[in-house]
Amino acid sequence: MIIDDQSYDLIIVGTGAGGGTLAYKLAATGRKILILERGDFMPLEEQNRSHVDVFKRERYHAPEEWYDSAGEPFSPQMNYAIGGNTKIYGAALLRFREKDFERVKHQAGVSPEWCLKYSDFEPYYTEAETLYKVHGQIGNDPTEPVHCADYPFPLIAQEPQMVAIGEAIAQQGLHPAPIPLGLTRQSDDPTNDAEVSGILPALKHPNVTLKTGAKAICLHTNPSGRAVKGVEAEIAGQSYLFLADIVVLACGAVNSAALLLRSRNDLHPQGLANRSDQVGRNLMKSLITAVVQLSKKPNSGTFQKSIYVNDFYWGEGDFPYPMGHIHNTGGLLTDIIFAEAPPMFSGLAKFMPGFGLKQLATHSIGWWAQTEDLPEPINRVRVDNNKLWVDYTPNNLEAHDRLLYRWTDVLKSVEKHLDGFQPGVLHPRGEVPLQVMANQCGTCRFGDDPDTSVLDRNCRAHDVDNLYVVDGSFFPSNAGVSPALTIIANALRVGEHLIERLK
Ligand SMILES: Cc1cc2nc3c(=O)[nH]c(=O)nc-3n(C[C@H](O)[C@H](O)[C@H](O)COP(=O)(O)OP(=O)(O)OC[C@H]3O[C@@H](n4cnc5c(N)ncnc54)[C@H](O)[C@@H]3O)c2cc1C
Question: Using CA atoms, how far apart are residues 316 and 409, in angstroms rounded to an integer?
Fold first, then answer.
């Protein structure tokens, strides 16, 4: 192993929503910062999804195998690149709702309370929305939490067909709202991400060094085991040790947990920071089902996500439990996760012979129905024989079924009253499979009790003084809305703590 001759104040591993944002926040401290990223910069044509054949499968799947609980290998949808999964995300940047930070009873169990509340995150949500240039408008959604400032950028124009659908949904007494989007407004790559808003501005500071193609393999501790001494990383087949005073993991919820488990040593036989046996446990990834609405009128197939509906978020009359969140997918030619549900489309193609798949996509509106899954110790990341296992059994299924049932009802009513749709047509749907880990979170939850949590409220490991985790791992519970803005806001929050510590 080559020992790097530099010593850093801080190393960040991973450049996605958590790591990229933290790098931005800390860059101006002047402290010597090293960023290790296993991927590389993504060429623009790879990022530009408007020409992606939606059925070209596994385009953004990592070239590695993970194993499900039955021992079946699968190739996860993970984007290993500068910016991580934000390079391919939908950039729908919603805040968690106030109650998402509280203990909430669900039909299938309990979503636990966080040690910090919405009011603790609020200033960082505002900072995150400015940094990621969120275009939005506060208004119509009954679950909208308190904002201390308006969105920093106005709404973008919506696809005309989506405007008409939004109006028809509102006529049923529901509250469709414009979905807040992080946008650069560039036509070749419109969505804002952790490369654009995090890494590129950070690299303008001479004290920040980035090493790409650098895959962290394990962390080494000092003789007492109370501190991390360095990060071992593989670069072009060669092993290197990088030394630092503080190490921050931001590899995504699955990979950060796996890295801690792989870093087991005599003083930490269960894995680093794992005295509580919680590292890797409580993996959540949201229950997500795509629903397709067929339309006689064509649309561009390449528009951004436009509206969301949260009327069922906390449940309704005969089902007083959280059901979840609905939003439209954006044009089906640009939506990557849609490519993961080919059985639904092959069914459709049979149902509509003679219709090319592209034709089908431009005559469809896609919807995501998303329900919170609950943290369970048995849903976990494990490392065994150097293989990465993901044991995940979905829970809270009845709430998700209710949401799908209600949403299909809404679509049927909309179609009766709206030009361009044929009442009575089916709504094909498909659940996203295990390999879609888009909303992964929860494997190193934060909390005040070292026996039941991995990280403290500053996202520092209870057991290891100079080790932090700032990706989606820290969530004690998931929410109905998507996680990226909360990961970004948290990285800004932890960044403030680290700035103090580095003084
Ligand atoms: C197709 C898709 C659409 C999505 N749409 C939305 C959306 O619209 N709204 C929303 O809120 N969320 C969305 N998400 C989820 C969002 O992208 C993630 O929640 C967010 O990116 C997670 O941030 P993170 O920092 O935890 O991990 P990531 O962003 O995944 O970053 C992890 C980083 O660590 C690097 N890395 C991993 N292992 C190592 C290692 N061993 N050594 C060095 N580097 C390593 C990776 O290459 C990557 O750069 C979407 C995700 C996908 C895949």
Answer: 14
* Ligand 1 pocket mutation pick from 49, 86, 132 by most atoms within 8 angstroms of CB: 86
Which long-range contacts (C-beta less than 8 Å, at least 24 apart) are formed by 196-199?
Answer: 196/83, 197/20, 197/21, 197/24, 197/131, 197/132, 197/133, 198/15, 198/19, 198/20, 198/21, 198/22, 198/23, 198/24, 198/83, 198/131, 199/15, 199/20, 199/23, 199/24, 199/35, 199/82, 199/83
Q: Which of 85, 134, 338 to mutate to test the pocket of ligand 1 (most atoms within 8 A of CB)?
A: 85
Distances (CA, A) of 427 to 291, 347, 423: 6, 11, 11
Model pLDDT, residue 233 = 98
What is the rounded CA–CA span in Å between residue 331 and residue 305?
Answer: 7
Determine the Cα–Cα distance for residues 141 and 309; give it in Å rounded to an integer: 7
Residue 125 confidence (pLDDT)? 98
Dist CA 266 CA 346 (whole Å): 52
What's the structural domain count of the chain?
1
**Any idea what the CATH number is for the domain that residue 308 is in?**
3.50.50.60
Nearest CA to ligand 1 atom 38: 251
Mean of the per-residue pLDDT values of the chain: 91
pLDDT of residue 189: 74
Taking the centre of ligand 1 as the mean of its atom positions, its distance from the CA of residue 160, in whole angstroms, is 31
The proportion of the chain whose per-residue pLDDT surpasses 90, expressed as a percent, equals: 76
Q: How many helices (H) and strands (E) does the chain have?
A: 11, 21
**Domain extent at residue 475:** 2-502
pLDDT of residue 299: 81
pTM: 0.96
Ranges in the chain, pLDDT < 50: 50-56, 342, 350, 353-354
